# Entry
Amino acid sequence: MKDFILWFEDQVKKTIEEYALVSRDDKILVACSGGKDSMTVLYLLKKFGYRVEGLIIDLLIGEWSQANLDNAQRFCDEQGIKLHVVSVRDVLGGSMCYIRSKIGAEKKLTTCAVCGVIKRWLLNKKSRELGADKVATGHNLDDQVETLMMNLLKNNIKLNAGQQPVTGVVKDDKFVPRIKPLFFCLNKEVRKYSELKKFPVLYDNCPCASGVFRKEIREELTNLEEKFPDFKENMVRNFLKILSGVKNEGGAIAYCEKCDEVSRKKLCKFCDLMSVLEREKFK
Ligand code: SF4
# Structure
């Protein structure tokens, strides 16, 4: 048990150092979901001596959100970490389920697709307002390989440019760089660490999780990992080697004409969704 904990912590430390994810002066905001991955990131960055605070977006998905919020608050209180809470109701006027019910059908988007756009927009805006130098997320090796494979199968290889330990495509004062300290840690390793450390987290999936495609990819990749150990890590490391070719196709940065946040189009994805929400509200 002790050996695994030391080994795991060493893996995370190596990733932070190898990819120069943070410097000692950085203020790091950890995007907390209340789950095992973000709790592990929060705990380890604090343990390694970095300046760290948490930010949780309350999606108001019933008891699941409340339990995650309570767990994150309890954990941060115990660890002496400041936790910022942003409620989607305060910002957008309703729960994630309400927002999705209003805009998902017209845009033909799943709950996760809507939720992802809203979380990314809020996370960047709030972390910038809070003066963060970096935003740390809990993405692990399984998340990374799944996303790489999904983008390849959907012929969206350009989207893979952002799949690095530190986001490297968008460089702009308005964009807070995102780092992924668990980039080379398997999901099962993070879970084992979290369980051994007895972190107060839910291991249940979000009740609104929608991605059937991701689930199928996950199963196939897990089968491959069983047959070919280290398959996931090799895939990610090989992808990182060819990344420069993908990055060159990133395109120019612009600002959304409505919210003034970083966007590749006139209207960012968030404002595009919000325009539907506004219309639906007044029907
Ligand atoms: Fe949002 Fe989907 Fe994650 Fe649930 S599983 S929090 S709906 S992105």
User: Anything to note?
Assistant: Residues 112 and 211 are 7 Å apart (CA to CA). The beta strands are 27-32, 51-58, 83-87, 134-136, 178-179, 254-255, 262-263.
